Structure formats: C-alpha cells, structure tokens
Amino acid sequence: MNSGEFRRRGKEMVDFVADYLEGIEGRQVYPDVEPGYLRPLIPTSAPEEPDTFEDILNDVEKIIMPGAASPACTELETVMMDWLGKMLKLPEAFLAGQVGEGGGVIQGSASEATLMALLAARTKVVRRLQAASPGLTQGAIMEKLVAYSSDQAHSSVERAGLIGGVKLKVIPSDGKFAMRASALQEVLERDKAEGLIPFFLVATLGTTSCCSFDNLLEVGPICNEENMWLHIDAAYAGSSFICPEFRHLLNGVEFPLQMNFLDISWVPGVASQGRPVAQMAFVLNICGVTLCRLLQPNSAGPTPPQSSEPGYRYPMLVFTLHPDDCSLADDPPFTTSCWESGAITVVPGTTTRLAYHLQILITTHQQQSRHSLRTRLADSFNFNPHKWLLVNFDCSAMWVKKRTDLIGAFKLDPLYLKHSHQDSGLITDYRHWQLPLGRRFRSLKMWFVFRMYGVKGLQAYIRKHVRLAHEFECLVRQDPRFEICAEVTLGLVCFRLKGSNKLNEDLLERINSAKKIHLVPCHLRDKFVLRFAICSRFVELTHVQQSWEHIRQLTTDLLRAQRD
Predict the structure, then answer these.
(1) How many other CB atoms sit within 10 Å of the CB of residue 222?
(2) Three-state DSSP class for 169?
(3) CA gap 337, 329 in Å, rounded
(4) Percent of the chain beyond pLDDT 90?
(5) Helix 501-514 and helix 541-563, axial crossing angle in degrees, nearest 10
(6) Angle subtended at Cα 472 by Cα 467 and Cα 478, rounded to the nearest 5 degrees
(7) CA 381, CA 368: separation in Å to the nearest integer?
(8) Is the separation of the CB atoms in 429 and 420 below 8 Å?
(9) What percent of the chain has pLDDT over 70?
(10) Beta-carbon-side half-sphere exposure of residue 352 (alpha carbons within 13 Å)
C-alpha cells in the first residue's frame, strides 16, 4: 500500500467508524451469535497471496461486527494465533484447534510472556511438591526454587525472577554465545547437590546482543529429564521462522526423547525375492514394562543401508517411553519391526537422541497400526510480531503446550466477572492467561496484516531484510579496519573497529551525534561492539550503502583526529 492509497483507505476507515457511531442506536447491545460462531466463517490458515482491502473490510462487517466485541474479540485471537502457529509450523500441540490442550494468546510484550511462564511454572512445581509432601509449605519450596537462562538472555528474564521471587542463575554461553547442555548440566548438578530445586529455563532464539541461538536440541531433553519448564524466547528472530530456510532455527521446540542403546547386538538377515528379511531381537521398555520379542523368519523388513559385509544387519534397541508417548503398555504381546528414517545413524554401544521421524510398526494380532514415538515439547514459546512481522505494537505472540498450566495459576472468578458461558467449555477466557483483566482487540490488526500481505508477502519482507544485512556484512569485511564479531544469521550485524573499546565508544558517539543513523551497542565478552540492525519497512540497498559510507567517513575522521 503506497502513501496515496493509505490516505484513501484511511479516510474510508474514518467514514466506517463515523457511520457506525451514527447508526449505533439501531444495533443490539448484546450479540445473537453463540460461542464458536467465528471459526467456521474464516479459513483455517492464512492466505498465501494478499487479499484486497475491500474484501477484508466487507468481512469486518459480515463476520466481526455480529460478534463485536464479544465473542469476536476472543475468537478471532484464538484463530489468528492458530494461523500464525501454522505459519511457523509449530507442533500441533501448541495450537488450540478444535480440541487441543494448548493454545496461543497475545501478550503485550515478551517481558510479560516470560513473567507469565515463570509464574505458571512456579505454581505448577509448588503444587506438585506439596502433593507429594503435604507438610511442605510454599515458603519452604520458594526459597529453594531456581530459574536459569543464558548469559546472553534479555534483562527481562532477570526482572521476571525478581517479580516472581525466585533465584535466577546464569549459564555461561559457548564461543558462539549459545547455551549448551554441558554448561547447563554442570550448574544443575551443583545446585541439586546443594538442595536447590531447578524448575524453569529460558532458552533464547535470537539474543538481543548478537542474535545467537541457544541449543534447544541439547537443553530441551535436560529440561524434560529434570522436570523443568522450558520457555523459549524468540522475541526478534521468531518472525523469520515463517520462511522455510530459517525454520531450522526453531528445531528443538519439539525435542527428542532420550534413547539409550544399552545392549545392541546384530542379527544377520537374508534377501528373498529382492525383499530384505531378518530375525531381530527387540527390547522395548514402555512405562517400565519390558517387552522382548523376536521377529519370525521371513518377516518383511525395510530396505537396509548398503553394506560391504554379507547379508543385512539390524540392531537390538532399548527404548524408554514416557506414558504420554505411547498407548501400548496394556496391549497384548506383539511383534515389532523398527527402522530409522535417515534422521539418525545407529552406532552400537553409544547413547543418542531419538529423532522424532522414527516410527515403530506395530503388528498385533496381524492388525498393523502405525504408532509415532512422539517427542517432548517446550512448555511455552513466544515471539513478537510487532518487531519484525509488520504488526503494530503491541503484539507479542505466546503459545503454551497446556493452557491449564496458565489458567490454573491465575484463574479468579469474582461475581462481577462471571458470565453464562464460563463453565460451558466452549470459550476461552483470556483474562486467565495474562496479567491485566482488560485487553484490546489486538488480533484484528493481525488479521489485516496477514491478509493484506499474504504469507508470501511477509516471507519476502523477511528475506529482503536478511539479504540487506548480509550486504552490510560484506561491506564491513571489505574494510580491513573493521571486524565482524558474531555470525550474521538474520537482520543484525555485530561489528567493531579493530582496537580498544574506547576507540569504538568514540566512534559510536560520533555516529549517533551526527543523527543520520542510530546504532545501539552491546558487550560481547570483554568487547564493546556496534550493532547494525535492518528495521524499517522502507529500507533499501541504497540506504545500507549510504549508512556504511557514513560510518567509514566518520571512522576516517576519528582516526585522523587521534593521529593529530
């Protein structure tokens, strides 16, 4: 939408509002629609291509106004969060859908989302420990609770700990400024030895300082093993996950179960009529029940990898599954064949993680049914569409794996807030999902943006910014006076003038005092670093090039002044 169309559409919206106010006496004060009316009226996912403004505005009158402000305000938010979750390819458990246990909510900021997650996690662990030991007081538990984050996490995480009244410990990051399993495990073991209770971890995807990414695939399983709430803060970087080429940065939001190869033996197989067959010893531990079966001769198996040795080889595997992950514990004896889908390489005598692609083919009473080994999910995930997805502030998207974790921590129902549908199970009361009771119709702007741009338009916007950031990176690398200080992954470039911190502080002072561009610095270890972020919807390559020439000229002036 160019400025001319923006003026025209803006005037049309003023007319729309004025017409509404003039005819307000003819409208009902309470809607006729029933809870759940809205979802069947709109598509299940965001459009790939842009819609016209006329179509959107017509839908406002046809779909939104009959339920404005209730239940349209609530129901559109639920659907928009599902739209956005599908754009990110979030695990289905995070989506509300029709019958899901999870769901999304629009918070005001990532700071609020982190605080809500921490408070929900705190309530959950206190109740769990008190259920196991009724004599424990909340105070006795609270003084031992510990939350964790990387040393690169945003300051809002520390603030959440202060508000929540719990200890927060910082995990040192590695050479790429990422939190890794070894550092986390070391701190956890030390704290548990001291009688402390780890309960909450914030993993950051796209840190504020340098856009680094904590290793979810490593820390996720640790959180599962330690029964800790895992909250993912992707405030800036999360928008990029709508692009397939950046979706891998979210890998680990659904982290794999642990699979221990406790006893692996190889059983040779033979080929018959071009189909591999085998005898395979298979030990399966489900919910603490160990089942061991031997496949019968001539059972068809998968095509194995080529081997220089005669015959085919299949491993004996030992799995330990969480009760939530498989419904086979009460099944009759069965035979099982197992294969990998290329996601992992099985090496005898090693311990690895079971990739979620792995499937088990269960044959019970000659009835075949396919059971997925489901992975564990992070407990909550958050990013800010108002940062990089063209949605105006404020709009911070938060999803939870189990909405009852939030509702159970914050639900209060005084008489003046009760309504006829609150116990029907048909509606979402977002007042139980957030700090304030009141809330704005923030999903409406999401609906407009998603439809005005389409998924492809939003992807193009993200890709353009990333491309421009790499253009700036190339310019920096061509000047031997400068150095790149962190890997450039998205739209942020961390760089500095080779030399002292004082030299770079002086350069930043000159850059910001000139008021042509504005840079915000950071510290990476002991280095004072400048940050160049691609932010504007209107930025073009010429702006990046002009900015770099401006920085180069100010650098030349600074170095000349120092020599003189």
Answers:
(1) 18
(2) strand
(3) 17
(4) 54
(5) 120
(6) 130
(7) 36
(8) no
(9) 75
(10) 16
298-to-282, 311, 380 alpha-carbon distances in Å: 16, 14, 47
Give which of 117, 381, 106 is closest to 234, Cα–Cα: 381
- Residue 477: pLDDT over 70: yes
Q: Would the CA dihedral through 297, 301, 303, 306 be positive or negative?
A: negative
Look at residue 308 in the predicted model and tell me its pLDDT.
35
Backbone angles phi, psi at 285, to 5 degrees: -105, 110
What are residue 293's DSSP bridge partners? 282
User: Is 235 strand, coil or helix?
Assistant: coil
Tell me the C-alpha distance between 124 and 70, whole Å. Answer: 31
Specify whether the CB–CB gap between 465 and 474 falls below 8 A. Answer: no
Question: pLDDT tens across 63-74, in order?
Answer: 888 887 677 888
> Does residue 362 have a pLDDT over 50?
no
Collect all residues with Cβ–Cβ distance below 8 Å to 61 and sequence separation of at least 6: none
Tens digit of each residue's pLDDT (9 = 90 or more) over 99-146: 668 889 999 999 999 999 999 999 999 999 999 998 899 999 999 999
Q: What is residue 302's predicted lDDT score, i.e. its pLDDT?
A: 37
Longest dimension (CA), the chain: 90
Following DSSP, what letter does each residue of 471-533 receive, concatenated? HHHHHHHTSTTEEE-S---SSEEEEEESS-HHHHHHHHHHHHHHTSS--EEEEETTEEEEEEE
pLDDT band for 34, please (50, 70, 90 cuts): confident
Lookup: tokens for 73: 């305000």
Q: Which of 323, 445, 453, 340 is nearest to 394 (CA)?
A: 445
Strand arrangement, sheet containing 281-286: 289-294, 281-286, 318-321
* Cβ atoms of 286 and 293 closer than 8 Å: no
- Is-contact 433 403, C-beta < 8 A? yes
**How does 321-343 read in b/e, with b if 16+ C-beta sit within 10 Å?**
beeebbebeeeeeebbbbbbeee
The two tokens of residue 425 are 């199970």
Is residue 297 within 8 Å of residue 284, measured between CB atoms? no
The two three-digit tokens of residue 395, written as one number: 């709009």
The encoded tokens of residue 23 equal 């005819």
- Measured between alpha carbons, how far is residue 340 from residues 24, 276, 315, 363 in Å? 63, 15, 11, 17
CA proximity to 153, closest of 111, 189, 191: 111
Q: For residue 373, is pLDDT > 90?
A: no
Cα angle 255, 402, 212; round to 5? 40
Structure-derived torsion over alpha carbons of residues 311, 312, 316, 320, reported in degrees to the nearest 10: 180
Q: Is it the case that residue 78 has pLDDT exceeding 80?
A: yes
The pTM of the full predicted model, rounded to 2 decimals, is: 0.77
